[in-house]
């Protein structure tokens, strides 16, 4: 058989056979050439080409970490992050900007006319980005989606509205609106960078750690299922449980708002402390704003005045001198003190309002808020011991553990004191304090003489459930007996002294009025405007709350002619209302009928 | 030749007849094995390459694959028929078939549907007819018939130029009207090889070849998009995002595959990075998923197809069989070369599918039918050989 084939081939050689052979050889050679080219591409150039491919597919993205929630002490959400969206369009993908604006304008942040201009100008500049509605919630986004879908269903495929993109944008929302606005604070527009209040102080705890997503994507940015995927999950931010009690906070804000209306004050602050722990149950400021409406957040309303506004405390500081003298054994409640109408110290004359008897007991000095009596007691105490108590009570330094924007006030060292410093400080001038510092001072008296650092955040709950609980620092300033003596003196202020309007219907209470003239910086003299304050505690035997109220420049007078510029007239009633509400809220049994 | 072919094989010595049959049989079996392997590789590559586009179209990732399987089935049925029908029927009816093709091309221009700026398809319900695919078959059949019939007259130039020029001229004119330059090349190229394999004097062939190449070059440069393709082919990375996109992405896919590939179904290029991954650029997907190893198998199969095809032509019982066979083989080889040459960026991108592998029903049907004809030519006893032996 093979012999036959060889024979055949030799015998029938035809003219075209050589040409066929040439065709066959050429074909094989060309395929060989293709093979070499393949070897070049898939061998020599493989790494370089694969790199080009990898680089165009790979994308590294940040996975946003869910920001932690801020709770009140009872677990009510004060600030939380929810799903939200930014809706943008690619103007270059729009055929008809007017039509696109017609569909989108009802949901957009801008008017129809502005939107048409935006989109048209975007196209002219070959921009690929125009904002439609930013930071909107899911319902709003779904409304846009269905409007686009509805429009697209009614037109030819080529006329469909494309190029609308929905990008995730977590939203920071504040369910309680304006409640505790200055305490909670705000985030930047990215909704994840704290810029005010607790959002700022605890930003690193709240924000968590963003994760990373490395994936391969197709040209339309869709993920290729077979591609490499590296996911480093985001670590959620910690939750924060504050000491704020939303109900007490609300009551404090209500009381403050009423006083603001009645007195036309420029501003005001209320602090409610739990004297036993130092927990800040409420910190209210006026004027205020709605956290969910950023446009209303001016620097003026963002200030947490209870810690950032310093004022000369006036008569509320007198209890410090009295308590120190009692503690040092220099006087007792019934020690009689000379109280002439006025005394001269250095080249300054101090006097009392109204007509006091020539001698008053220490407790009457407190009840009637006698300047002369207090100055006489301060003279018994002496500058050094006086200064010692001022610092032990937390004046001249920041007292809040974790309160954003706190000022430390001013307390000059004794070396800088003039002849009148001790006397002036005794009656609440020549030092500057914050409402929080004064509340902490009174909480010391309420807490049997132990000064406790006020704090806002009770617990930080980490994503794994670990709880970090705040333990505030505390130190003893007064003996329990001295504290108790001072409390009963404060009780008399409300019973029969300057603070009668601070009386509670259901509870015993003690406190002190304060009225200090505002220093007019421009003219260099004290003006007729005042800081009217009241700081008190209730119930008197075992105080559960301390409430401090400061009003800046209250005006007007009560029906009986008493000027509202006095703390006893304008601030004391706020105490009565707030303390009563707070004690009910805390479930404290009434001790007065 | 023809008088030899008409003689009965009955007079042959039985052993000689068996030898002839088994030699032809071996070639046809080899041919079928090669085609079967290409079909298998093609369906595998289709399953991967078309899944993304199928999902995008209507969420059934096997939609295009299923269609392709169906067309392979039709194609194999057509192949069985053409393998059993004596191939001389194509000689006998070459003219009517060619005329039918011409009418088909004219109808295409009149009622055809326009896609991507070209009118190449006639929609008939679920089926789309692309007459150009059939034109390759019928034109080569007519060319082989005419050249066989002219015999010794081919030594005169006018007997070559007039018939060949008329046939190619009409087809070229109608295809360019669509326009479909790719298929003009795939008819002119094999036609040239057929001329070369015939008894036309070499000086005519070189003259006509030179003229043909110049004509093709002129046509190629006449349309802006073809000109751009031709120029971009030289520097694909110069505009990798736009005109050089396909060439660059195709090379990227091949490079990503490396020596052994990223694995079946693991192609990244098919995720819209490489346009037309399941049609014109399916070889790039094969190269990406199976690497140099797999790509080499494919080009080796095409080279083997060429060798076996040329050997079938060489052994063909008569001049028509020889010319038709070499025409068919050149058609497949040139089409595969033009396609893969574009994919590996040594040729401009022309948009022709890869035989037996790319998606496309018409091409699959005609290609497999043509393979059937080759099988029939291979299995038809060589009377001429027997004569030579018996002399």
Can you offer a commentary on this structure?
The complex is a heterodimer of chains A (593) and B (391). Chain A has 593 residues and is α+β, with helices and mostly antiparallel strands. Chain A is built from 21 helices and 23 strands. Among the domains of chain A are: 84-90 and 115-122 and 129-169, no CATH class; 246-289 and 311-459 and 469-585, Beta-lactamase. In chain A, a hairpin with a 6-residue loop joins strand 11 and strand 12 (280-286). In chain A, helix 4 runs antiparallel to helix 5 (112-124), helix 13 crosses helix 15 (371-381) and helix 13 packs across helix 19. Chain A is elongated and about 150 Å long. Chain B has a three-stranded antiparallel sheet with strand order 1-2-3, covered by helices on one side. Chain B starts with a helix and ends with a helix. Chain B has helices at 2-6, 14-58, 63-84, 88-92, 94-111, 131-150, 157-177, 181-197, 202-222, 224-234, 245-257, 282-314, 319-343, 361-379, 383-390, and strands at 113-115, 118-124, 127-129. In chain B, helix 2 (14-58) runs antiparallel to helix 14 (361-379), helix 6 (131-150) packs antiparallel against helix 7 and helix 7 packs antiparallel against helix 8. Helices cover 72% and strands 3% of the residues of chain B. Chain B is built from 15 helices and three strands. The model of chain B is unreliable at 1-8 and 384-391 (pLDDT under 50). With 391 residues, chain B is mainly alpha-helical. Chain B is globular, with a radius of gyration of 21 Å.
List keywords for this structure.
heterodimer, A: Beta-lactamase, six-stranded mixed beta sheet, elongated, B: 391 residues, mainly alpha, disordered C terminus
Write the layout of secondary structure elements.
The complex is a heterodimer of chains A (593) and B (391).
Chain A: H1 2-11, H2 15-44, H3 46-57, E1 58-63, E2 70-71, E3 77-82, E4 84-89, H4 97-104, H5 112-124, E5 130-137, H6 138-153, E6 164-168, E7 171-173, H7 181-184, H8 197-201, H9 203-207, E8 211-216, E9 229-232, E10 239-242, H10 246-263, E11 267-273, E12 280-286, H11 299-302, H12 305-308, H13 318-327, E13 336-338, E14 342-345, E15 348-351, E16 359-361, H14 362-368, H15 371-381, H16 383-392, H17 421-426, H18 435-446, E17 450-452, E18 457-461, E19 467-469, E20 474-476, H19 480-496, E21 510-520, E22 525-538, E23 545-552, H20 567-570, H21 572-586
Parallel strand pairs in A: 2-10
Antiparallel strand pairs in A: 1-8, 2-3, 3-7, 4-5, 4-6, 8-9, 10-18, 11-12, 11-23, 13-16, 14-15, 17-20, 18-19, 21-22, 22-23
Helix pairs in contact in A: 4-5, 10-21, 13-15, 13-19, 14-19
Chain B: H1 2-6, H2 14-58, H3 63-84, H4 88-92, H5 94-111, E1 113-115, E2 118-124, E3 127-129, H6 131-150, H7 157-177, H8 181-197, H9 202-222, H10 224-234, H11 245-257, H12 282-314, H13 319-343, H14 361-379, H15 383-390
Antiparallel strand pairs in B: 1-2, 2-3
